[in-house]
Each structure stands twice: as C-alpha cells, then as structure tokens.
Design goal:
The protein is of the alpha/beta class. It is built from 14 helices and 13 strands. The structure holds pyridoxal-5'-phosphate. The site of pyridoxal-5'-phosphate has 14 residues, from α4.
Length: 393
C-alpha cells in the first residue's frame, strides 16, 4: 500500500461529480446568507427554527462568556462540568419527560459513545439501512454483531431479531431520516423491541425542537415513555441553533454513560456559554410554539408548489423536503443553477445517499417567509426547465 495514488483517487471523485467543496460563509445562519461574497436565499441549513442567530440566544451566550469565560477547560469528570451544563441537563430531562439527561459535545460523539458503552462482542445492534453515519460507525466500533434491516421495515427487523442469540439487543433508528425527511414507524418499532426483549434507541436530531406540541420531538409526538424508548438522543446544533447533543433515559443508563462512555469521559466539556445559550433556546422552544406552526405552513406551501411544477418530492412532512433528481452530475448542475439565481440548495450525493438517488435537500427554517418559498419555487422552475433530466424510476 502506498500513498502515491492520493491525487488519482481525488481526480476520479471529481470525474464522477462526487467531489466535495467547502464554501466560506460570511454571515450568521439565517434565511439570507452571504457565501463567498454572494447573497443567497438559504435552504440548506438545519437551523429549523431560526434560533442560531436569535438575539436572546446570543445575549445568553455573551453573558455566560463574561461570567464563565470561553473554554470548558477540563472534561466533565475532572472539573469542567459547570453550572450551566448541569442546569441544562436537568432542564432537558424534564422537557423530554425522562429521568436524566447527559450532555455530549456533538451528536456524532453521543452516538459513538452510547452504543459503545452499552454493547460489546456478545451483543447485537440492529440498524435501519438509512441510519445516520454516526450511528452506523458507533455500531461498527462496538464490536457487537452488526445488522442492518430494510428501511423502516419492521418485518425485516423481526427476521433478524428472531434469529439473534445475542445477550443484549439494541435496535437503533433515526427518528426523522436526515436525507429523506420521513419519520420512522416508532410505535411498531417499540412493539417489536419489546417482543424480543431488545432496547430501542432513537436519534431525534431532526425532530427535537420541531415536532410535538411542546417541541420535545418524536417521543412527544408519539407519547413514547422512557420504558418504551430507553435511549433517546437529541442534538442541539439543529433546531436548537447552538451546538452539542444529549442522551436521555433512566438513572442507570446515564450513570453507565458517565462511567463507561469514552466520548463523554475523554474530552473537554463544551464551552459553558454554549450550554447557557441552549437553555435560552429551550425556553423559546417551549414558550413560542409559533415557530413550529410557521414552519409547517412553509412546508405545506412548498409541497403544493412542487406538485404544480411536477417536481418529485420524497414523502415527508418535516422541514426536510428532498427534491429527487437521480444522476449526481444533474443534481450538481441544478444546484449550481439555483445558486446563480440567488438560491442555495445543496445537492446530496453518494455515499451520503445511494448512487443515482442524488437529490436537492431543501430544508426550511422558521426564519423563512412565504415570499422566500415563492422565490425558491420560481428558481426551481427555471432551473429544471434549463437542465433537462429523467426522474429515477
Ligand atoms: C446531524 C446529525 C447527527 C450529528 O450531530 P452533530 O451534533 O452535528 O454531530 C447525528 N444524527 C443525525 C441523524 C444527524 O442528522
């Protein structure tokens, strides 16, 4: 094995329209952003409620920085567990109707840390085919028998669970699938896990803050208890507009993570001011339900507009509305055309989604107006007229 072919591998990726480029963002995340000097209407962030740039969230961040400084300075188990971290954990637990919650620095780290603290080589993990990369990586790293069931297919899961002789069985699913926008069939998964004495873990990165009466996400939407969903994970960098993640569940689960979760133990705590800002996001989410209502209005307006234009959307009622394109190069060409029209929608390509299922992943934020949606639809209409393509069958 040599490293001589690095450039060759990169060149091949370019030829297949799979090369990834970073752009430089020169504004806060919001409905309108400045990217590489150009103003764009933004339909690509996960700031679903428009809280990343909310004045009260920013104010809390500043006040906490004045009081607690910037860096966490140490891990939680040494002396980096500050007042704001602790309060946020208590508030998140109450919000989710769980016994306890534990903060992690990112959703990626939470997923790696939880699965590895719970499972070893005598155990098995069952994952939806479309689960987020961090869940898949967590499962692979754990050394447990790793099995993927067909997307949202409870019979496929049943097959695998019935044959398993593992000591601990953990069923793991995205609650809202990140590249498709649909919601997992959680009540059926709860039943299946119970039948087989398995635990269910859900990753509610895209539901938390957006779904449910109070915004507590999919467990609130389906009224799922701690017994039914023993491991609940949510992220704070999306609808909450800040950064980090948490896991919520029983006292025994949280103590297990504190003792054994390596991505919790061996890392510096998130900056305390981030925790303080997140506490304010949580208050806004609980008290101001209008953001969720407005988001739903934008989504339904967009869906009916796409129908009029003959655009194929995946079946989703969430803020993630993927416009299916198919070929990677076409998705990139349409995305580039949209940018030239002042609208940002990023193309999502393999390996994030299967080959030839490239899509424009449109995401909405409560910061958008109905006029913004009209502008998006007009740009999409122009772009697909100019760049002809065949829908994937
Ligand atoms: C974004 C995301 C994560 C990762 O969360 P970060 O806090 O960004 O690391 C995990 N799971 C899902 C489903 C996600 O969409």
């Amino acid at each position: 094995m040599s490293f001589d072919n690095l450039q060759q591998v990169l060149d091949q990726r370019k030829q297949r329209s799979l090369y990834r480029h970073r752009q430089v963002l020169q504004s806060p995340q919001s409905a309108k952003i400045i990217v590489d000097g150009k103003a764009l209407l933004n339909f690509s962030s996960n700031d679903y409620l428009g809280l990343a740039n909310h004045p009260r969230v920013i104010e809390s961040f500043k006040l906490a920085a004045d009081e607690y400084g910037v860096g966490g300075g140490a891990s939680h188990l040494v002396n980096g567990h500050s007042h704001h971290h602790h309060q946020l954990e208590l508030e998140l637990a109450e919000f989710c109707n769980r016994s306890r919650a534990l903060l992690f620095c990112s959703g990626y780290m939470a997923n790696i840390g939880v699965i590895n603290a719970l499972l070893g080589k005598n155990d098995a993990v069952f994952q939806d085919k479309l689960n987020h990369a961090s869940l898949l990586d967590g499962g692979l790293l754990s050394g447990a028998k790793f099995q993927r069931y067909l997307h949202n297919d409870v019979d496929s899961l049943e097959n695998k669970l019935a044959r398993s002789t593992a000591e601990r069985k953990l069923v793991v699913t995205d609650a809202v699938f990140s590249m498709d926008g649909n919601i997992a069939n959680l009540p059926a998964l709860v039943d299946k896990a119970e039948q087989h004495n398995a635990w269910l873990m859900i990753d509610d990165a895209h539901g938390f803050g957006c779904l449910g009466e109070q915004g507590a996400g999919c467990t609130e939407l389906y009224q799922l208890t701690e017994q039914q969903v023993p491991v609940l994970m949510g992220t704070l960098g999306k609808a909450f507009g800040t950064a980090g993640a948490f896991v919520a569940g029983s006292d025994a689960l949280i103590e297990t993570l504190i003792q054994f979760s390596r991505t919790y133990i061996y890392t510096t705590s998130m900056p305390p001011a981030i925790a303080a800002a997140t506490r304010t996001s949580l208050q806004l989410i609980q008290k101001e339900g209008w953001r969720r209502e407005h988001l739903q209005l934008l989504i339904s307006r967009f869906k009916s507009g796409c129908q009029e234009l003959g655009l194929v959307l995946l079946p989703s009622d969430t803020a993630i509305q993927p416009v299916m394109i198919g070929a990677e190069h076409t998705a990139v060409a349409i995305s580039d055309k949209l940018a030239s029209l002042g609208v940002q929608v990023k193309a999502i390509r393999t390996p994030t989604v299967p080959l030839n299922q490239a899509r424009l992943r449109v995401t909405f934020s409560a910061a958008h107006s109905l006029v913004d949606v009209q502008q998006l639809l007009a740009a999409l209409s122009t772009a697909v007229k100019e760049i002809k393509f065949e829908y994937p069958s």
